[in-house]
Design a protein that fits this description.
With about 210 residues, this protein is mostly beta strands. The chain has one helix and eight strands. About 0% of the residues are buried.
Protein backbone atom coordinates (compact mmCIF):
# COMPACT_ATOMS: atom_id res chain seq x y z
CA UNK A 1 0.00 0.00 0.00
CA UNK A 2 1.52 3.33 -0.99
CA UNK A 3 0.43 6.81 -1.92
CA UNK A 4 1.80 9.46 -4.19
CA UNK A 5 4.59 11.72 -2.95
CA UNK A 6 3.63 14.34 -0.31
CA UNK A 7 0.29 12.67 0.31
CA UNK A 8 -0.74 11.11 3.65
CA UNK A 9 -1.83 7.52 4.07
CA UNK A 10 -4.99 7.24 6.17
CA UNK A 11 -6.29 4.00 7.70
CA UNK A 12 -9.62 4.60 9.41
CA UNK A 13 -11.88 2.34 11.46
CA UNK A 14 -14.90 2.77 13.72
CA UNK A 15 -13.16 0.65 16.39
CA UNK A 16 -9.42 0.32 15.99
CA UNK A 17 -6.68 -0.21 13.46
CA UNK A 18 -4.55 -3.33 13.99
CA UNK A 19 -1.39 -4.32 12.16
CA UNK A 20 -0.23 -7.92 12.61
CA UNK A 21 3.08 -9.58 11.75
CA UNK A 22 3.32 -13.37 11.44
CA UNK A 23 6.13 -15.79 10.78
CA UNK A 24 6.24 -18.43 8.04
CA UNK A 25 4.18 -20.76 10.23
CA UNK A 26 1.42 -18.22 10.61
CA UNK A 27 2.18 -17.51 14.28
CA UNK A 28 1.65 -13.95 15.50
CA UNK A 29 5.05 -12.35 16.22
CA UNK A 30 4.13 -8.68 16.50
CA UNK A 31 1.02 -6.53 16.75
CA UNK A 32 0.33 -2.78 16.73
CA UNK A 33 -3.15 -1.63 17.71
CA UNK A 34 -4.35 1.98 17.49
CA UNK A 35 -7.54 2.32 19.51
CA UNK A 36 -9.70 5.11 20.83
CA UNK A 37 -8.12 5.00 24.30
CA UNK A 38 -4.58 3.75 23.74
CA UNK A 39 -1.90 2.65 21.30
CA UNK A 40 -0.66 -0.84 22.14
CA UNK A 41 2.36 -2.70 20.79
CA UNK A 42 2.92 -6.39 21.48
CA UNK A 43 6.32 -7.65 20.40
CA UNK A 44 9.59 -9.02 21.73
CA UNK A 45 11.33 -5.65 21.43
CA UNK A 46 9.98 -2.18 20.74
CA UNK A 47 12.31 0.50 19.33
CA UNK A 48 12.09 4.18 18.43
CA UNK A 49 14.95 5.39 16.23
CA UNK A 50 16.06 8.83 15.08
CA UNK A 51 15.31 9.78 11.50
CA UNK A 52 18.96 10.67 10.90
CA UNK A 53 21.62 8.10 11.71
CA UNK A 54 19.20 5.51 13.03
CA UNK A 55 20.20 6.10 16.67
CA UNK A 56 18.00 4.20 19.15
CA UNK A 57 16.10 6.81 21.15
CA UNK A 58 13.89 4.36 23.07
CA UNK A 59 13.79 0.60 23.35
CA UNK A 60 11.86 -1.77 25.58
CA UNK A 61 11.82 -5.52 26.11
CA UNK A 62 11.08 -7.90 28.96
CA UNK A 63 14.44 -7.27 30.65
CA UNK A 64 15.01 -3.51 30.42
CA UNK A 65 13.95 -0.15 29.03
CA UNK A 66 16.68 1.99 27.44
CA UNK A 67 16.39 5.71 26.71
CA UNK A 68 19.17 6.75 24.35
CA UNK A 69 18.40 10.46 24.00
CA UNK A 70 21.06 12.97 24.96
CA UNK A 71 18.75 14.42 27.59
CA UNK A 72 15.71 12.99 29.38
CA UNK A 73 13.44 15.80 30.57
CA UNK A 74 10.55 15.13 32.96
CA UNK A 75 8.15 18.09 33.02
CA UNK A 76 5.67 16.78 35.59
CA UNK A 77 5.26 18.84 38.76
CA UNK A 78 6.01 15.80 40.94
CA UNK A 79 9.16 14.88 38.99
CA UNK A 80 10.13 11.26 38.44
CA UNK A 81 9.19 8.53 40.93
CA UNK A 82 11.35 5.40 41.19
CA UNK A 83 9.91 2.53 43.19
CA UNK A 84 13.24 0.91 43.98
CA UNK A 85 16.79 2.06 43.19
CA UNK A 86 18.42 4.47 40.75
CA UNK A 87 21.92 3.81 39.41
CA UNK A 88 23.87 6.67 37.86
CA UNK A 89 27.46 7.98 38.00
CA UNK A 90 26.44 11.65 37.97
CA UNK A 91 23.60 13.81 39.32
CA UNK A 92 23.54 17.52 38.46
CA UNK A 93 21.07 20.38 38.30
CA UNK A 94 20.32 22.52 35.28
CA UNK A 95 22.47 25.66 34.76
CA UNK A 96 21.74 28.41 37.32
CA UNK A 97 19.60 25.98 39.35
CA UNK A 98 20.26 24.53 42.82
CA UNK A 99 20.54 20.78 43.36
CA UNK A 100 18.42 19.60 46.29
CA UNK A 101 18.44 16.15 47.88
CA UNK A 102 15.46 15.82 50.19
CA UNK A 103 13.67 13.11 52.13
CA UNK A 104 10.50 14.79 53.51
CA UNK A 105 9.36 11.95 55.79
CA UNK A 106 12.39 9.75 56.46
CA UNK A 107 16.17 10.02 56.62
CA UNK A 108 18.66 10.74 53.84
CA UNK A 109 21.67 8.39 53.76
CA UNK A 110 24.83 8.79 51.66
CA UNK A 111 27.25 5.87 51.78
CA UNK A 112 30.38 4.95 49.83
CA UNK A 113 33.10 2.39 50.62
CA UNK A 114 35.84 4.83 49.56
CA UNK A 115 34.42 7.97 51.14
CA UNK A 116 31.83 10.67 50.51
CA UNK A 117 33.08 14.06 49.36
CA UNK A 118 31.00 17.25 49.55
CA UNK A 119 32.68 20.25 47.96
CA UNK A 120 31.56 23.86 47.48
CA UNK A 121 34.27 25.36 45.26
CA UNK A 122 32.99 28.95 45.23
CA UNK A 123 30.53 29.19 48.10
CA UNK A 124 29.58 28.17 51.61
CA UNK A 125 28.78 24.69 52.88
CA UNK A 126 25.93 24.70 55.39
CA UNK A 127 24.52 21.82 57.44
CA UNK A 128 21.46 22.51 59.60
CA UNK A 129 19.10 20.23 61.49
CA UNK A 130 16.22 20.49 63.93
CA UNK A 131 17.64 18.26 66.65
CA UNK A 132 21.20 16.92 66.94
CA UNK A 133 24.05 16.96 64.44
CA UNK A 134 26.48 14.04 64.87
CA UNK A 135 29.99 13.91 63.42
CA UNK A 136 31.38 10.44 64.01
CA UNK A 137 34.54 8.65 62.91
CA UNK A 138 34.76 5.03 64.02
CA UNK A 139 38.44 4.43 63.22
CA UNK A 140 39.95 7.78 62.16
CA UNK A 141 39.81 11.38 63.26
CA UNK A 142 37.68 14.46 62.61
CA UNK A 143 40.00 17.10 61.15
CA UNK A 144 38.96 20.76 60.98
CA UNK A 145 41.28 22.77 58.74
CA UNK A 146 40.41 26.44 58.29
CA UNK A 147 41.87 29.91 58.74
CA UNK A 148 39.25 30.64 61.40
CA UNK A 149 37.23 28.19 63.50
CA UNK A 150 34.36 29.69 65.50
CA UNK A 151 32.08 28.10 68.05
CA UNK A 152 29.11 30.40 68.36
CA UNK A 153 26.56 30.73 71.19
CA UNK A 154 28.62 28.81 73.76
CA UNK A 155 27.38 29.38 77.32
CA UNK A 156 29.62 31.30 79.72
CA UNK A 157 30.16 29.60 83.06
CA UNK A 158 30.87 31.38 86.34
CA UNK A 159 34.21 30.85 88.04
CA UNK A 160 34.89 31.19 91.74
CA UNK A 161 38.04 30.46 93.73
CA UNK A 162 38.06 27.87 96.52
CA UNK A 163 37.71 30.63 99.11
CA UNK A 164 34.45 31.89 97.64
CA UNK A 165 31.13 30.24 96.93
CA UNK A 166 31.01 28.26 93.67
CA UNK A 167 27.56 29.63 92.95
CA UNK A 168 28.61 33.24 93.27
CA UNK A 169 27.38 35.24 90.30
CA UNK A 170 27.79 38.80 91.51
CA UNK A 171 28.10 41.28 88.66
CA UNK A 172 31.50 42.95 88.22
CA UNK A 173 31.86 46.52 89.35
CA UNK A 174 31.81 49.30 86.82
CA UNK A 175 35.51 49.91 87.41
CA UNK A 176 36.49 46.29 86.69
CA UNK A 177 38.09 45.69 83.27
CA UNK A 178 35.87 44.15 80.61
CA UNK A 179 36.45 40.42 80.16
CA UNK A 180 37.64 39.76 76.58
CA UNK A 181 39.59 36.49 76.86
CA UNK A 182 37.95 33.20 77.78
CA UNK A 183 39.06 29.63 78.27
CA UNK A 184 37.34 26.80 76.42
CA UNK A 185 36.28 24.12 78.89
CA UNK A 186 34.86 20.63 78.40
CA UNK A 187 32.42 19.07 80.87
CA UNK A 188 32.65 15.35 81.74
CA UNK A 189 29.67 14.73 79.45
CA UNK A 190 31.45 16.47 76.53
CA UNK A 191 29.57 19.77 76.60
CA UNK A 192 31.66 22.88 75.84
CA UNK A 193 31.45 26.16 77.70
CA UNK A 194 33.49 29.32 78.17
CA UNK A 195 35.11 30.37 81.40
CA UNK A 196 36.79 33.74 82.11
CA UNK A 197 40.52 33.28 81.53
CA UNK A 198 42.83 33.72 84.51
CA UNK A 199 46.42 33.16 85.53
CA UNK A 200 45.60 29.43 85.81
CA UNK A 201 42.86 27.23 84.42
CA UNK A 202 39.37 28.31 85.49
CA UNK A 203 37.57 25.20 84.21
CA UNK A 204 35.60 23.42 86.94
CA UNK A 205 33.82 20.10 86.76
CA UNK A 206 31.29 21.49 89.24
CA UNK A 207 30.45 24.41 86.97
CA UNK A 208 26.80 25.33 86.76
CA UNK A 209 26.96 24.61 83.01
CA UNK A 210 28.07 21.01 83.59
CA UNK A 211 25.68 20.35 86.47
CA UNK A 212 22.60 21.52 84.60
CA UNK A 213 23.38 20.15 81.13
Amino acid sequence: IHVSQDSPLVLQSDRNVTVNARNHMGQLTGQLTVGADAVEAQCKRFEVRASEGGKVLFSADEDEIVIGADRLKVTGTEGAVFGHSVETPHIRAEPSQDLKLESPTRSLVMEAPRGVQVNAAAGDLKATCRKELHLQSTEGEIFLNADTIRLGNLPVGSFSSSSSSSSSSSSPSSSAPRQTIYELCVCPNGKLYLSPAGAGSTCQSSSNICLWS
